Amino acid sequence: PQKSIDKIRFVVLDTETTGLDVVLAWKKHLDKGSVSATFTGNFNNMDIKSINNGNLDQDTFFSNRDQSFLLASAPDSKLGLNLGYKREKFNVSLAATRFSEIVLIDFADTEDVFEAKMTVDLNLGFDLTENLKLNVGGNNLFNVYPDQQNDGETDSGGYWEAVQMGFGGSYYYAKLGFNF
Q1: Cα–chain center distance at 87
Q2: Which of 59, 62, 157, 166 has CA atoms 20 to 30 A from the CA of 92?
C-alpha cells in the first residue's frame, strides 16, 4: 500500500555569497620535457540573510548547528600550489593545499574551531609502454588531521569531523593504468 503525504514543508534560506577565484598558470617547455606551476585561490564570504521555517521548529529544521555546516561549506579561503615536471616517459607532480579555519557547532551546542591546515600530495608517473602507465604517490604525505574535538560530540562520533582535508590521514597508492 502506498502512503500519502498530507503536507510537504520546506525550509527556505536566503544566503549571500561573495568571493573571488584566482587561477595563475605557467608552463615552460624544455629540450626533452616541461615544467609547470599553477596557483589557485578561492576566497569566500557567505552570510545567511534569512531563514524561513514557516511554523517548523528552528532547532529541528536548520538550527545553529546546521547553519555552521552550511557556512563551513564556503570557507574563507582555500589556496593551492601545484608544481609539475615531465620528461619523456617520466612525470612528477607536487601539490600543496592550504585550507582556512572553519567553525562548526557540535552536538553539545558548543563551537568547534578547526584551525587552518596545509596538506602536501606527491605523484610519480612512468609510462611503461605506450598503453601502460604506473603511478605511485601519496595524498596528505605528512599525515595532517583536523584539530581534535571531544569524542562523541562530532558527526563522526570520534575525535575528528570530516572537514577541510577529511579525517583519514595519509593515503598512499600505486596505480596501473591501461589505455586500449
Answers
A1: 30
A2: 166
Q: Where are the beta strands (DSSP E) in the chain?
A: 12-29, 33-52, 77-87, 90-99, 102-105, 111-114, 117-129, 132-139, 171-178
- The closest of 150, 125, 147 to 136, measured between CA atoms, is 125
How is the beta sheet containing 33-52 ordered, strand by strand?
12-29, 33-52, 77-87, 90-99, 117-129, 132-139, 171-178
Judged on CB neighbours under 10 Å (0-12, 13-18, 19+), 104 is buried
Q: Give residue-wise pLDDT tens across range 82-127.
A: 999 999 999 999 999 999 998 888 878 888 888 999 999 999 999 9
- Are 174 and 128 contacting, i.e. CB atoms less than 8 angstroms apart? no
Sign of CA dihedral 111, 42, 99, 74: positive
| Residues in CB range of 31: below 8 A, 6 or more apart | none
- Entry field: residues in the chain: 180
> Which amino acid, 32?
K
134-175 pLDDT tens trace: 999 999 999 998 888 776 677 766 666 777 777 888 999 999
Rounded to the nearest 5 degrees, what angle is found at the Cα of 51, between the Cα atoms of 162 and 66?
15
Can you give the pTM of this predicted structure? 0.82
Query: For residues 39 and 80, is the Cβ–Cβ distance under 8 A?
Result: yes
